Amino acid sequence: KSAAPTALRGRIVTFRADPFATDPSSALLIEEDGLILMENGQINAVGSYDRLRHRLSPDTTLVSYGKALISAGFIDTHVHYPQLPVIASWGEQLPQWLERYVFPAEAAFADPQLARDVARRFLRELMRAGTTTACAYCTVHPQSVDAFFTESERLGTRMIAGKVLMDRNAPAELRDTAASGHAESSALIARWHGRGRQLYAVTPRFAITSTPEQLEAAGDLLRTHDGVYLQTHLAENMEEIATVRRLFPERSSYLDVYDHAGLLGPRSVFGHAIHMTETDFCRCHETDSALAHCPTSNLFLGSGLFRVFDALDRRRPVRVGLGTDIGAGTSLSHLRTMGEAYKVAQLTGRSLHPAQALWLATAGAARSLSLDTQIGTIAPGMEADLCVLDPCATPLLRYRTERCASIEELLFVLMTLGDERCVKATWVAGRLIHENAGDTSSER
Ligand code: GUN
Ligand code: ZN
């Protein structure tokens, strides 16, 4: 039960500072033999086992993870749960991939039973990946949102999600109208936003599939509902960008289409943002809009290379978090996503430090979602969402991590070789929600 006091012992890895703003190594906060005390879904105390052991009472359940790393749960800032059935679909770039695979898959969500089944499977997979919060797209059908939040509420996870708005350039069965999309979104906000840990995101798919009237309606929803999010796609693919220019000849850039409709702000999250000008980055900084970096998706669809160090430029930093972007992304594992973010940075001539990669998957992602006072780090008062990473999950990992001289090196090996197999346990609001006994522990 979540109310009972629970304590986790292990190697704690979290952050004391932003590793993009300071020396990445010194931004890490590491407790080699650490203890985390949790009660009522929150973290009460964090520190060395020796310093905190006197606070263990007879009714505290103590779980010891030995040499495994305990991190804040991963945060996926951009993902489409209805696309789980079409992950790993061959042969297309963005516009044709949407037509050929995604729209037919999303049309199936008219069936509420299917929506429930996929929402359940998706959230179970997230827990297996150690991801405890996601900013998720549903489909155009309101029941796809009900299915997602219902399952999230059952698990006790903090999730952000919303109904896709599309009133043009999509199959008829997937279109709403500016008016119906507004009304359905309002009803979903009333039902779900701020209910327990659930939060709503107004979700126009992208500029191509919404009329100017629908984008205006999305702006109205943001202005009239406190604390709701805005999520959409931005500057992902060259053909997409050319179409946006044709559809909105009077706007100065793709970002300006959204800006004009009043969609920029501190709770706005733009997916991809690969092909950005300096003016675009400056405008995101001014409005405090955030970007979701989705490396596995950008490589899979051949969309391009996100310039993370440009986005985070100290002169005008833009908040960034990692996203898997399933089904264009190829893994729900943020360890895999961190590994691919490293490779994308390599292709732009920069080396992403493992502390920076972990930041983008946890504390930085929380900051990009304006949730950094609740999730993303391990500290007193934070919500008790944690994942436990086993550095010996496979024979090769064990062999390689035995040779690591530091936690940083260990993190780098985990993000290069690791995946769901490394997630030994996932805790949500102080409750054990997923446990992986492992099947290789006896192998050498
Ligand atoms: N742009 C508009 N819709 C989508 C989508 O579903 N996935 C990706 N990757 N890009 C999009
Ligand atoms: Zn997406």
UniProtKB/TrEMBL annotation:
Keyword Metal-binding: yes
Recorded catalytic activity of this chain's protein: guanine + H2O + H(+) = xanthine + NH4(+)
GO CC aspect terms: cytosol
GO MF annotation list: guanine deaminase activity; zinc ion binding
Residue stretches making up the Amidohydrolase-related domain: 70-432
Keywords: Hydrolase, Metal-binding, Zinc
Entry annotated with the keyword Metal-binding: yes
Note accompanying the cofactor annotation: Binds 1 zinc ion per subunit.
Pathway linked to the protein: Purine metabolism; guanine degradation; xanthine from guanine: step 1/1
Cofactor: Zn(2+)
Enzyme Commission identifier(s): 3.5.4.3
Biological process (GO), any one: guanine catabolic process
Entry's family note: Belongs to the metallo-dependent hydrolases superfamily. ATZ/TRZ family.
Function of the protein: Catalyzes the hydrolytic deamination of guanine, producing xanthine and ammonia.
Protein name: Guanine deaminase
Gene: guaD
Region of the whole protein represented: 81 to 524 of 524
